[in-house]
Design brief:
The chain is α+β, with helices and mostly antiparallel strands. It contains one helix and six strands.
């Protein structure tokens, strides 16, 4: 899934993989170190409004890939994330059948 990641004033395109309610794996050109706080915008196909996760903490990094843990999700963020994950699970199950 396409996304944007922001640290300080730098915002760059990224690819989000392995998304869950707790966090995600992200591939990006942004150089971040574990412990760094970033923001993640998930670009939902067919939806004009991205899902904005204001607080994501970098847990690990290898080359251009890093893992984040979502911190203090707001109820709206959690609801949108749950809905997005449910939609992807349904699409995946539909493809398998």
């Amino acid at each position: 899934m396409k996304s944007l990641v922001r640290a300080n004033s730098h915002e760059v395109e990224a690819a989000t993989r392995d998304l869950s309610l707790g966090g995600a794996q992200i591939e990006s050109s942004l150089a971040v170190q574990p412990g760094r706080q970033i923001a993640v915008k998930l670009i939902v196909p067919g939806d004009d409004t991205p899902i904005l996760i204001e607080q994501a903490r970098v847990q690990w990094n290898v080359d251009r890939t890093f893992g984040v843990r979502f911190v203090d999700l707001q109820p709206r963020e959690q609801d949108e994330l749950e809905q997005l994950i449910d939609e992807y699970i349904a699409l995946d199950e539909e493809r398998k059948s």
